[in-house]
Amino acid sequence: MTPPAMSPSPRISTIIDVAVRAEVSTATVSRVLSGRRAKDDDIARRVRRAAHDLDYHANYAASTLRRDSTDLWEVTMADPTDGFCSAFLSHAITTAADHGKRVLATILDESYGGSAEGPEAVDHREDPTHTGEVDGRILLPRSHPLPPSWASTSRHAAVRSIVVSPWSPSTTLSSVCIDHTSTMDLAITHLAAHGLRKTAFLGAAPNEAHEDSMRDASYLIAFESAASAVRQTTGPQWMLLGPRTTARGYDVTSRLMGTSADRPDSLICIDALVASGARLALDALHDHSTMVVAIDDHPAATQIDPRIIVLRPNFEDMARAAASLLTPTSADPPAERTPGPIHQEVPMTFISQLVQAS
Question: What are the helix and strand counts (H, E) for the chain?
């Protein structure tokens, strides 16, 4: 008796099938279905609809068993033209290599370049074979606090995500940021070591609409504390707040140094633009002894005037701190590790310690 013919097993849909039907790359499918793509647009809806129609379900647990590590860290930037982002990325690539990792740089900002497809376009050009899976993700936002879409996506993503920025620590994710207090201590201690005991601070006026507002307020508080700790002479009349412009640095310094009998012997400026204006004013007054320090997170800060002492982020240490947060340090199960975000604050470092000649 001939056994009844068996019907063929139904074909199981793959990620490639979903990508073809949704008319996107497999990397985009992976990001949408894993929750690592922040935008909820037509592309995301097409992917989810295609996955539903094809009854496709990504088996991330099996993927993890097949491959414990991708040896890839993703650095996601809001603005790759920003000096802080580009400098950190350069050091992140070197640090990643020390850990046996590669870096995939992506952009996550719909306004950048006028393209809503920014992250996908960048991913595809830089690594056509990338499947969307990474071992860790570093976020470099344009503003503080972290945009809600970034924070929401990262908290629910399967990969470990951290924030790196010049601002205060993130309240939602582990982060690496600049230690404002230690940075100001370093500046004040440096001045005191050169016998300079009368310091004025040319800070920035806190502005709630400006992304640097919290940082500016932190530096003002840190200046008062550091100056008091080493008995530095200062006062409200020497803590001057205003816009971050060269013209403002010139005008304030001209008034402060040109008309007052009791003048400071050093100036700490909130950035290199203000410091350059201060230096120009001192030159006009034939003052070659007053020391000028600039706190600036832009890599080109020292190119303005080599006589200005510049404190800038220690990108090497920040990259190392980011790597330590991305790299598990214990074999303990997640439930037994430290709960909640972990924050590492890194002080700035001197990149020019030239003392102006008298």
Answer: 12, 12
With CA atoms as reference, report the closest residue to 215 among 175, 267, 178: 178
Note whether 220 and 239 are within 8 A (CB).
Answer: yes
pLDDT of residue 81: 83
Residue 83: its H or E element = helix 83-98
**64: number of Cβ within 10 Å:** 12
**Pairwise CA distance, residues 345 & 98, whole Å:** 22
Q: Which of 293, 270, 322, 326 is nearest to 192 (CA)?
A: 293
What are the backbone angles phi and psi of residue 255, rounded to the nearest 5°?
Answer: -70, -45
Q: Name the residue among 46, 38, 50 with its Cα closest to residue 139.
A: 38
Residue 165 near residue 175 (C-beta atoms within 8 A)? yes
Alpha helices in 108-243 (DSSP H): 118-126, 148-155, 180-193, 213-229
Cα 15 from Cα 231, distance rounded (Å) = 66
Distance, in Å, from the CA atom of 126 to the CA atom of 123, rounded to the nearest integer, reads 5
What average pLDDT does the segment 232-250 reach? 88
**Span 2-61, pLDDT tens digits:** 555 555 556 677 888 888 888 887 777 877 877 666 667 788 889 889 988 888 876 554
Q: Do you find a cis peptide bond into 206, omega within 30 degrees of 0?
A: no
125, 277, 305, 354, 356 from 284: Cα distances, Å: 51, 11, 15, 20, 15
Count of CB atoms situated within 10 Å of the CB of 289? 12
Burial of residue 20, with CB atoms counted within 10 A of its CB: 0-12 exposed, 13-18 middle, 19 or more buried: middle
* Helix, strand, or coil (residue 196): coil
Say if residue 353's pLDDT is above 50: no
Rounded to 5 degrees, φ, ψ at 228 are -65, -35
Angle in degrees, CA 271, 213, 323, rounded to 5: 75
CA-to-CA separations, 287 to 210, 257, 263, 353, in angstroms, rounded = 34, 9, 12, 19
Tokens read off for 5: 């013919």
